[in-house]
């Protein structure tokens, strides 16, 4: 029985040694792989952080480019609008100048026409005065002639005045 117990102890020690060696190797491998996992996890975390940083930098650059493009587009629109305003202003100034020139021409023509009409009126008034004077002179002469004729008829007719009916 003692031999059997020894044999069982011996067998148990041998089995324990045979299990310990692979178990020790497994534990060593587990520790090694655990440290490798920690290193890989740290590397992945760093890569992830770098990727985030890179993506954020790209996004920032992209947004800055969009902002610059929008700014340039608005700047071109503002310049186009300023150019259109300038052209409209020039057009209005030209129209104003033409209108003022036309107004001056019309005022000049009006002045000339008024002067021409004033001269015609003066001529007509002068002609009217001449005609009136000639008519008055003709009337005066006719009255004198009638008076002479009447005087003459009185002398010749012996004082008889004849009336014509």
Structural class: mainly alpha
- Which parts are unreliable, with pLDDT below 50 for 5 consecutive residues or more? none
**Cα-atom Rg, whole angstroms?**
68 Å
- What is the N-to-C succession of helices and strands? H
How would you describe the oligomerization state of the chains in this entry? single chain
Compute the number of strand runs: 0
The outline comes out as rod-shaped
Mean pLDDT: 87
Give the helix level as a range of percent: over 70%
C-alpha termini separation: 207 Å
What does this structure look like?
This protein is mainly alpha-helical. It has one domain (1-144). The protein has one helix spanning 2-157. The model has no long low-confidence stretch (mean pLDDT 87). Residues 125-165 are annotated as: Disordered. Residues 156-165 have a biased composition (Gly residues). Keywords: Coiled coil.
Briefly say what this structure is:
The chain has 1 helix and no strands. It is mostly helical and 165 residues long.
Secondary-structure map with pairings?
Blueprint: H1 2-157
């Amino acid at each position: 029985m003692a031999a059997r117990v020894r044999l069982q102890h011996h067998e148990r020690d041998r089995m324990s040694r045979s299990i310990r060696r692979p178990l020790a190797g497994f534990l060593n491998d587990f520790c090694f792989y655990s440290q490798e996992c920690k290193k890989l996890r740290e590397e992945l975390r760093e890569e992830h952080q770098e990727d985030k940083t890179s993506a954020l930098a790209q996004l920032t650059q992209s947004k800055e480019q969009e902002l610059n493009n929008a700014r340039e587009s608005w700047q071109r629109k503002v310049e186009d609008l300023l150019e259109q305003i300038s052209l409209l202003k020039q057009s209005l100034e030209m129209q104003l100048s033409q209108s003022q020139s036309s107004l001056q021409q019309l005022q000049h023509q009006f002045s000339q026409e008024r002067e021409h009409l004033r001269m015609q009126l003066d001529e007509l008034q002068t002609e009217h005065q001449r005609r009136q004077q000639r008519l008055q002179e003709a009337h005066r002469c006719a009255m004198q002639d009638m008076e002479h004729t009447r005087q003459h008829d009185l002398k010749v007719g012996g004082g008889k005045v004849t009336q014509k009916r």
